[in-house]
Amino acid sequence: MENAFESKVNKQIEQFEQQAYSTLEAEVAKKRIAWFQEHIPEKNRTPLSPRKAYELFFFEYIGLSESGVPVIFETPTRIVWNSFNRCSTLEACQRSGRDTREVCRAVYEKPTQAFVSQLDPQLRFHRSYQEIRPHAPYCREMIIRLDFEAMMKLALEEAKQSRSEGNKGHGAVVVFEGQVVGKAHDTAVTENDPSLHAEMNAIRQAVRTLGDRNLCGAILFSTCEPCPMCTSLAIWANVTTIVYGISIEETARLGKSRILIPSTEIIQKSPVMIEVIGNVLKDECKQLYI
């Protein structure tokens, strides 16, 4: 009779063979969010430190001890650890000839962020794909706290620069592991190219900076909710989160939007999992379009 670990490994191998990674990703996210909602009282769902999020995920949800995921660096806004615990995903990948770098990125990273976001979306989970088993002796992971308003202020600065140049006044920033990897504004007017929205420019810059067209783990900040074109690029780039200031619906009432389809509707038509958070510095962003 196989033990619980072997059963889990065999189940994962079967899932990898029979289901698309995007389907598995959605199932894992649903399971983790359901556990959180069942086990964490509403009164305890307050913004927590990276340390508390780490403890909740690994000790209460996964059931590990700190010896399996020892912390190697910690500040009030960042906690970094190495995972040495016995891992069914690692075993399933090795037995089935799959690369953990591909599987963990495609199936498990965004669901972990979805779990952490239940506490506070400004807590961000990241995994290193250079330091990951079996390519390294451990898996390097971290949770950081990111100031959404500070990032949106950078987007606002870009939007103001856009206005000063004679463009439409949109700004966007892409952040990865707490670092700005793309920062841009719309240049459609000055470059005579209608595709050059702020988000398009920022995502392209981020891809060049990171040398990777897959932006899993990245956050796209935009002064205005991304239009269908820009949301589609975010989907193709596989960003983890979109954060905007003012919605398409509201800018439409100001006569500033052309395609009245919210970003969530575009995302729902795709297999890509992206969380959308609105109304960050909404009033400041709204002033750009009045």
TrEMBL record:
Query: This chain belongs to which protein, by name?
Result: CMP/dCMP deaminase, zinc-binding
Name the Gene3D superfamilies for this protein: Cytidine Deaminase, domain 2
Output the superkingdom of the source species: Bacteria
CDD domains (UniProt xref): nucleoside_deaminase
Q: Where is the CMP/dCMP-type deaminase domain?
A: 146-257
GO molecular function terms attached to this record: catalytic activity
